[in-house]
Amino acid sequence: MEIDFSHYNILVVEDSELNRYVLREILERESFHVFPASGASAAFEFLQKERVDLILMDVMMGVTNGYELTQQLKAMDEYKHIPVIFITNLRSPEDIVRGFDSGGVDYIPKPFNRKELLQRVKHQIRILASNETIAKQTEELKAAIKNRDSMYAILAHDLRSPISSLKMIFNILAVKAEEENNGYSAMVNTGNDIAEQLFSVLDNLLKWTKSSLGILSFIPQQIDFKDMILGVVETLQPSANLKNINLDLDLQQGLEIFFDVDIMKSILRNLLINAVKFSHEDSVVKLTLHQDGDWAIVEVIDSGIGMSAPAQEQLHKQIFRHDAVTAMGEKGTGMGLWVVSHFIHAHQGEFFFESEENVGSRFGFKVKLSAGDLSV
């Protein structure tokens, strides 16, 4: 990596006028900008006026020695990032260790060896240049990711409305086809299932990207939990019918929660779609709602293909990363369940699951009941 040393300022803190002159001559021949200071007060005066990239610090000075001055600089937020190289004729291991302990990054013995001096100075400048490059690339990557997420959010938002309309059309056609018994019922239900899955993917993508960008709005309101669940089940019934899966509901009445309606629908839809997707034909998916103290608990239980222990461990790593928005693995695996886990926890709830390979799975969550239901 080619470095233009003329872009870097070096402050030389040295009480010997001769040493300041020698250091300045050596470094300026390599195109560095060099600024001399005879002691602590001159050093601070210059630091307040100019940007400094590297400090060459004499150890044995007047009132304040180099170790003490370096410790003062490292204690100040505006200067603690500046690397300090000590220039000293103290060469005992104790003195060298003391220099590193006070915040120095290297040392140069006196009398100066020109090649060694330049090698050590240039090494620190290369580290600075590398860090600057990394910081710049990091900012560019963050901007690219933000732009990508913005594009995802726009696409998902623009596609969500027509897919939602398509779902409604298929629902109407499904009812008509069944009433007229014209042989198109299975085909219409298949189209409805495809539209439902597309809508779910776009809905998850929209929530993921908006959450990533910090622009997702939460609008909680009072919800009759049983009525909401019945509404979601009705929209997913055609998908269950395709595999002749019976949706067995055991829903306690009278439970209300204070939650964002759109997000709760997404949570329920994701759990039911997963259960139907991984269930065998002619089987049962059970959905329960009941109260446990201050909590409303929802469980979706299937007797489908289940998950192996390694698959469960991988899923757990993907969906329980609350330090990061992006919890998807390869090919977007787990985005729907990440939506469930992320937003249940965002509403101070709890998400859980258990599974056994070739036996089935149980996914569920608990959320706080509204105050009016706590005495039930």
UniProtKB/TrEMBL annotation:
Q: Could you list this entry's UniProt keywords, alphabetically sorted.
A: Kinase, Phosphoprotein, Transferase
Name the enzyme's class. transferase
Could you cite one Gene Ontology molecular function of this protein?
kinase activity
Q: Which InterPro entries match?
A: CheY-like_superfamily, HATPase_C_sf, HATPase_dom, His_kinase_dom, HisK_dim/P_sf, Sig_transdc_His_kin-like_C, Sig_transdc_resp-reg_receiver
Q: SMART domains of this UniProt entry?
A: HATPase_c (SM00387), REC (SM00448)
In the record, which residues are listed under signal peptide?
none
Where does the Response regulatory domain start and stop, copy by copy? Answer: 9-125
Catalyzed reactions per annotation: ATP + protein L-histidine = ADP + protein N-phospho-L-histidine
Give a Pfam family name.
HATPase_c
Entry coiled-coil feature ranges: none
Might you give the EC number(s) for this enzyme?
2.7.13.3
Query: Residues where 4-aspartylphosphate occurs?
Result: 58
Q: Organism's domain of life?
A: Bacteria
Keyword Metal-binding attributed? no
Query: Domain Histidine kinase, which positions?
Result: 154-371
- Name of the protein in question: histidine kinase
Q: Which organism is it from?
A: Sphingobacterium kitahiroshimense
